[in-house]
Amino acid sequence: MFQRFFGRERHANRAITEALYAQIVAAARQAVFYSDWNVPDTPLGRFEMLSLHMFLFQHRLRGESGAATEVAQVLIDEFFLDVEHSLRELGISDVGVPKRMKKLAKMFYGRTAAYDDALERDDKEALAAALTRNVVPDAGEWPQAPLLAAYVADAARHLAAQPAESIASGTLTFPAAG
């Protein structure tokens, strides 16, 4: 038992978590989102893209069992730890962090419900509308929303083609945007 927590298995699991999270972050930071598709290159804009890619990861592993379920939970925990760390780096006080985390968690789960519904219905217009509402809420019209919606649908198909066992062992790829 102690070897599980302190031994090789724990290090292997940490390496898998770090590899998967690095792939999710790299996909969320694709330059095309910010330079060509006008996603705001702000902490909130980056949160939106990271949330979107975390949603895609969670969407792929939903309904899986065994190690894939554990990996999905560990990655969502890692995501929220990263968000909390980012808030602290932005200078949010210890008193303000829990309140902001609660708000960001509510935002994340609200967005994932909207994205999931649109993907399940294969409704790119609803997906584009949800993305516009969340990514650029003050813009009103966002001509690049259909491009991002098409990317999300493509990424969902791309991830669906990857075996859950492969993902659970740390191998994950997202398509290139643009």
From TrEMBL:
Domain Ubiquinol-cytochrome c chaperone: 36-174
InterPro entries, per the entry: Ubiq_cyt_c_chap, Ubiqinol_cyt_c_chaperone_CPB3, Ubq_cyt-c_CBP3-rel
Coiled coil: none
Pfam families in the record: Ubiq_cyt_C_chap
PANTHER family referenced in this protein's UniProt entry, alphabetically: UBIQUINOL-CYTOCHROME C REDUCTASE COMPLEX ASSEMBLY FACTOR 1 FAMILY MEMBER, UBIQUINOL-CYTOCHROME-C REDUCTASE COMPLEX ASSEMBLY FACTOR 1
Family recorded in the similarity comment: Belongs to the CBP3 family. Belongs to the UPF0174 family.
Protein's recorded name: Ubiquinol-cytochrome C chaperone family protein
Natural source organism: Mesorhizobium abyssinicae
